[in-house]
Amino acid sequence: MPSPVPQEPGRPSRMRRSLGVKDGVAIAASSTAATTSLGIGMGSLAAYAGRQTPALLLLAFLPVFGIALSYARLNRTEPNCGSGYTWVGRSIGPWSGFLTGWVVLIGSVIFMAYTGAVTGSVVLQFLNKLGLHSLLGLRLDPSSTGISTAVGLVALVLVTVTAITGVRSATRLQMWLLIFEYAVLVAFCGYALYIGDQPFSLSWLNPFEIGSPQALAQGMVIAVFIYWGWDAAFSVNEETRNASDAARGGLIALVAMLGLFLIGAVAFQRVMSTGELIHNGPQALTFLGSSLAPEPWASLPLAALMCSAFASLQSSVIPTARGALAMARDRTLGPVWQRLHPRYGSPAVGTLVIMAMAALLAVLAVGIPKLNDMILTAVNSIGLTVALYYGLTALACAVRFRGSLRDGAVRAVRDVVVPAASALALFGLGGYLVWDYATMSDHFEASPDNGWFMLLLPALFLLLGLATAAWAKWVRRSPYFRTGRGTDADALTLPMDGDAGEPLRHPVES
Fold first, then answer.
1. Average pLDDT of 55-64?
2. CA distances for 396 relative to 83, 94, 147, 503, angstroms
3. Model confidence, pTM
4. Whole-angstrom Cα distance, residue 429 to residue 270?
């Protein structure tokens, strides 16, 4: 194996870096999962924005792109797999930094739980297409949360195994999945644009025609959630050859997602009315395929959706486990999260714990009987927390580089104005929705249209995070809460499987 990179005396050697821009694009694009987002998200967006869904996606891109520029700027200065957790802690304070890392961890676990059920639903749809509608007397109903969850648990186990065996092998698989699913998506959406019988209107691109401020705000949260995932590229900084590669990978994936989302949204509306979009919900992509082509070609979009769902699950495990690793090495989380696999060098135990938590949550969520309700509840819960940690990270960028205000207009806009404006936009959006949820219902009910229920889950996440932070500060006596600085990325060796698949030993063992 290659000799370790020389380091300063007394400092551990840096791990072998083998990921480049295309790997970052693969991780970010897989985590964002354009095919899954289009396949299951267009119905949710249409419920709020109607025919203005393309306008909503374009409008939501603006603050998200500002957040992405903030990530890239911070990453050039301090590459670290903790990303927002590390940057916010240093620039704003350790409590805010911890909450940033915490909501990413909890939000990702929730996302995996619900996406596991969605993956199970897609697999069941595919089996139905093949003529298999029951097994051992059990009806294989794609809209059943219970059956979909059971199949999704199997998918969770499979993607966890691939995540443990190394990032490099995972990104190779994801790249091939991406090529297939995007080829199918572009082909079918392009054909839908050409032959769709619903007339296109420029009003589809006008956000001012959305019915109400509440509908706009709720739709914006869902749209931000749909873009969520591009920041996964910043979670593998320790395994990336150059810090700028992670930034380029995330930004390239985000811009590509904008193009795919706009094309997909317009294509769906060229084929389906608003009522059909809402009615089909998570089976909208399947409906699109059957509307455009006969079998077996009509099943290609469903196959692409299945690939996208698996890739999205896998790419969610990877950054979540590495974010928890960054927190564990600061002693803000327990030591279990930084136990590395002796052969593959991945945070294997933490990956297994994340999978177990997602599986438990998925089983508990079976109480919501319909998959559409399950998805909407998840989006409402995660969307607020995503807006919070994105906003905190952008604010950290504005605070850290506030000196750029004296260095000319271009740097001031790039380093301070755009991050601050993006943070304020997301904070304002989240604040408005909190007020709206708090006043929309007069009683509590476990339902996705009950405001108190939609507020309960994010509130529980934050309260549990504050309790965990207090334990880390006063019981574990984490140095993070004294300095706000995360462990330097080079202070802990995170080995990784070599290109040829051979185990990579710690430098001191070489």
1. 95
2. 11, 12, 43, 38
3. 0.83
4. 30
Residue 362 half-sphere exposure toward CB, CA atoms < 13 A? 32
DSSP lists the bridge partners of residue 135 as 138
How far apart are alpha carbons 24 and 175 in whole angstroms? Answer: 10
The 10s digit of each residue's pLDDT in 490-508 is 454 444 433 333 333 332 2
Cis peptide before 495 (omega within 30 of 0): no
Q: For residue 507, give the nearest of 498, 497, 499, 494 by alpha carbon.
A: 494
What pLDDT score does 395 carry? 96
Average pLDDT, the chain: 82
* DSSP of 169-182: HHHHHHHHHHHHHH
- On whether the CB atoms of residues 430 and 384 are closer than 8 A, the answer is yes
Using an 8 Å Cβ cutoff, are 330 and 247 in contact? no
CA 424/CA 208 separation, integer angstroms = 20
Beta bridge partners of 19: 240
How many Å is the maximal CA-CA distance in the chain?
A: 72
Position 247 scores a pLDDT of: 78
Contact in structure between 506 and 26 (CB atoms under 8 Å): no
Assign 3-class secondary structure to 180-198.
HHHHHHHHHHHHHHHHCCC
In three-state secondary structure terms, 138 is strand
| Mean pLDDT score, 63-74 | 94
Task: Please list, in sequence order, all residues whose beta carbon lies within 8 angstroms of the beta carbon of residue 241, skipping any fewer than 6 positions away.
Answer: 17, 18, 19, 20
Supply the pLDDT for residue 46. 92
Give yes or no for a contact between 240 and 246, defined as CB atoms under 8 angstroms apart: yes
Contact between residue 371 and residue 284 where contact means Cβ atoms under 8 Å apart: no
| pLDDT tens digits, 448-493 | 778 888 888 788 888 999 999 999 999 999 999 987 776 654 454 4
* Token pair in block for residue 278: 């809402």
